Amino acid sequence: MSQRAQHPTRNAVVALAAAGIGVTAVFGAGASAVAAEAKAPLAMDTAAAVAAQAQAQAQAAQQAAAAKAAQAAKAKAAEAKAAKAAAVKAAAKKAAAAKKATKAAAWVKPVAGYTLTAGYNQGGAMWTNKHSGQDFAVPVGTPVKAVHGGTVVKAGPNGGGDGPAYGNAIVIKHPNGTYSQYAHLSKIGVKPGAKVKTGQLIAKSGNTGNSSGPHLHFEIRTTPNYGSSLNPATFLRAEGVVL
Ligand SMILES: [Zn+2]
Fold it and tell me: Which residues form a coiled coil (predicted)?
């Protein structure tokens, strides 16, 4: 027996190693167990990865939902804002229209069916100074209306205190601080202190005082008294009334 033959196993291992077969094959079942053990963490990693992915997906979905909700809320807010702006615009338009309507109705002409005769600041033999008002030629007894609401501050003969040239006259104080005056009247229908409305009948036109013929002498003043007149045609035009 040779020495070689006495160590067959050792020789076999050496031979196997020389043949390039791995240690694993030699150890058999034991090596498989090791492989399985090595595989387990991998499986767990996969599960964890799946779970993580699921969580990430859920999170992404949640974020997307939140973003969508935020966008919807934003859109809703924008819509509400637009609606509010439209409402404000509509209200402003309505207010402007109402103001225009109010303004148009707020001042009226003192008489109807007139012919404009002597204008404001016109010179002539009839007046000591320039003409302080606008004359409306109308038949005696024509209804005279308050050009705007206010309070009667003068009413009576002698121009209501302004002088005999005016004949029977009325002065009304308006809320905007101006005064309107009506002269040469045949009949006076209001007393000082009376509240009058726009267009209210206050007198009948006439030919009293220093008058060359039946007409209404009309003034706009900045005070109740003679000497503070404005151009009545210009004033009324600014209030939407064209004579
Ligand atoms: Zn006059």
Answer: 44-71
